[in-house]
């Protein structure tokens, strides 16, 4: 097997894909905003509850797509203008009630710098000892959030991530972050109050009742958005080949970004509307790469990594198997375990792939000595 490329080598190779286009970024943003507004209009204008539900689901999907563009803009990669990127990011995060200032702190300064370390982040796995030390209710929540079902993604993100870290500032956050976050929170509350008033007054200008407008126009889109967001961050960093670390993650070798992030392969017709958000490993190598350049960057990264590239083709059976295996993490042996502590995957360390002899059945295999797709 080929040697592990260094972090610097990978960054140099992918730097050629840092090609932001203001015209392309603005066009993508306008399309998603327009589709979101049309979906809300469908909720309010239609007399059919089925069409209202369709409108609510589409609105939730477009909220997720807007958050991806806002994520790009927050990295200053969507357009060439830093000022324009900032405003696009704030507006793009607003329908999903994401606080721009908290996003910068949580995503840039924690997630990217401390990827797959044991700080508060999305779907950080517990060890067997940590799980056993939880209260009965804590263990119940952990089992529910990691159950092999798509039903609980939204619940997890609303209560464990959005409410805790993405909506309003907390006392433990740095003072400067709190100050900026309170300003953004005020903006979110103005938006939320205005939007809810628009929905509550729906009977005055449409055939839609207040209850229908709030349910299909706000609650359904919000839960769809949170569910999609939770699913995305789960599959981006929870995988049978992805390691997690206690303390500081090594910046080279087994801990570098190429081995703690996943590319999940979807059909092109799906990947383009969601702005290639599942080509995630290349993004972690170079966050300045725009989403519309990620497929080419990801292809080059996979070429450089060879067998060590962590690439899985999505299917519901793959997701079920992944969620069935990845319950707890053994930070000493570097493998995933079930809730009883029994090893459920091979070693996750790229440098130790050939040392594991544990055999598994299921859909998640490796090409030769690792898990394949």
Number of discrete helical segments: 15
* Low confidence ranges: 355-373
Total strands: the figure is 4
**Amino- and carboxy-terminal Cα gap:** 18 Å
Overall form: globular
User: Cα-atom Rg, whole angstroms?
Assistant: 21 Å
- What does the main sheet amount to? 2 strands, parallel
Report the sheet-strand fraction. Answer: under 5%
Oligomer: single chain
Structural class comes to mainly alpha
The figure for the number of domains is 2
Strand order of the largest sheet: 1-2
How are helices and strands ordered from N to C? Answer: HHHHHHHHHHHEHHHEHEE
Task: Report the average pLDDT across residues.
Answer: 92
* Helix proportion range: 40-55%
What does this structure look like?
There is one protein chain. The protein has helices at residues 7-14, 22-45, 49-74, 82-93, 100-111, 128-132, 136-145, 153-166, 175-200, 202-205, 210-237, 268-271, 280-285, 294-305, 316-325, and strands at residues 263-265, 311-313, 328-330, 335-337. With 373 residues, the protein is mainly alpha-helical. It folds into two domains: 20-237, no CATH class; 253-355, no CATH class. The strands form two sheets. A two-stranded parallel ribbon has the order 1-2. The protein has a two-stranded antiparallel ribbon with strand order 3-4. Strand 3 (328-330) and strand 4 form a beta hairpin. Helix 2 packs antiparallel against helix 3, helix 5 (100-111) crosses helix 9 and helix 8 crosses helix 11. Mean pLDDT is 92; it is low at 355-373.
């Amino acid at each position: 097997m080929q040697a592990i490329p260094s972090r610097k080598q990978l960054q140099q190779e992918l730097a050629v894909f840092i090609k932001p286009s203001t015209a392309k970024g603005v066009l993508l943003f306008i399309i998603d905003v327009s589709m979101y507004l049309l979906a809300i209009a469908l909720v309010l204008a239609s007399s059919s509850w089925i069409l209202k539900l369709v409108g609510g689901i589409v609105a939730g999907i477009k909220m997720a797509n807007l958050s991806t563009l806002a994520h790009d803009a927050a990295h200053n990669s969507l357009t060439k203008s830093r000022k324009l990127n900032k405003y696009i990011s704030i507006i793009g995060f607003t329908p999903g009630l994401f606080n721009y200032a908290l996003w910068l702190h949580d995503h840039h300064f924690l997630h990217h710098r401390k990827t797959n370390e044991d700080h508060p982040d999305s779907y950080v796995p517990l060890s067997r000892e940590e799980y056993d030390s939880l209260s009965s209710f804590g263990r119940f929540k952990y089992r529910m959030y990691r159950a092999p079902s798509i039903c609980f993604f939204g619940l997890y993100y609303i209560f464990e991530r959005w409410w805790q870290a993405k909506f309003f500032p907390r006392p433990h956050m740095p003072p400067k972050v709190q100050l900026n976050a309170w300003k953004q929170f005020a903006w979110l509350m103005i938006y939320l109050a205005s939007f809810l008033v628009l929905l509550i007054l729906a009977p005055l200008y449409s055939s839609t009742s207040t209850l229908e407008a709030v349910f299909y126009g706000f609650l359904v889109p919000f839960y769809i958005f949170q569910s999609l967001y939770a699913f995305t961050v789960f599959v981006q960093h929870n995988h049978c080949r992805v390691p997690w670390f206690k303390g500081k993650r090594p910046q080279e070798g087994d801990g570098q970004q190429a081995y703690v992030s996943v590319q999940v392969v979807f059909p092109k017709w799906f990947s383009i509307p969601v702005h290639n958000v599942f080509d995630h490993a290349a993004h972690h190598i170079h966050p300045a790469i725009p989403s519309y350049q990620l497929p080419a960057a990801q292809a080059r990264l996979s070429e450089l990594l060879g067998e060590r590239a962590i690439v899985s083709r999505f299917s519901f059976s793959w997701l079920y198997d992944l969620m069935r295996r990845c319950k707890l993490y053994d930070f000493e042996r570097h493998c995933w375990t079930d809730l009883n502590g029994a090893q459920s995957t091979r070693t996750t360390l790229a440098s130790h792939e050939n040392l594991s002899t544990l055999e598994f059945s299921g859909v998640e295999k490796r090409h030769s000595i690792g898990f394949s797709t």
